[in-house]
Design a protein that fits this description.
Elements: H1 6-27, H2 32-52, H3 57-83, H4 89-118
Length: 120
């Protein structure tokens, strides 16, 4: 189980924000980038949930690695949406901080997990 589910809870809350952003962007008639954001932004928590149910250390690490890659992709879509004028700077700043925090948490867990395994 990951850090008393702190990162899972943050990823879940982040996914809710992403779904709301997706709805907002669809109202602005933006369908392509918003769909990518929705896919990657909700996938983070789903992969963390799968990591929590991992059947091995390798499975745990693999699922967390996918979650990490998905949050990095989400940060890309957020930046692109901001730079193309679909989301304002203040909204971007607010949600990007959350994405960055989740990325750092996941990376830290992966790093510690892999270091612990090398000591065996």
């Amino acid at each position: 189980m990951i850090n008393n589910n702190l990162v899972y809870n943050k990823a879940y809350s982040f996914a809710i924000r992403v779904v709301k952003a997706y709805k907002y962007l669809n109202e602005k008639q933006e369908f392509i980038l918003s769909k990518q954001l929705l896919r990657s932004g909700t996938s983070v928590g789903a992969n963390i949930a799968e990591a929590n149910g991992a059947i091995s250390d390798l499975d745990f690490s693999a699922k967390l690695s996918i979650a990490y890659k998905e949050i990095l992709e989400t940060k890309y879509w957020l930046s692109l949406l901001k730079d193309t004028g679909y989301i304002p700077q203040d909204v971007y700043d607010d949600i990007f901080v959350d994405a960055d925090e989740i990325a750092k948490m996941i990376y830290s867990i992966i790093k510690v997990t892999r270091i612990d395994k090398k000591d065996c």
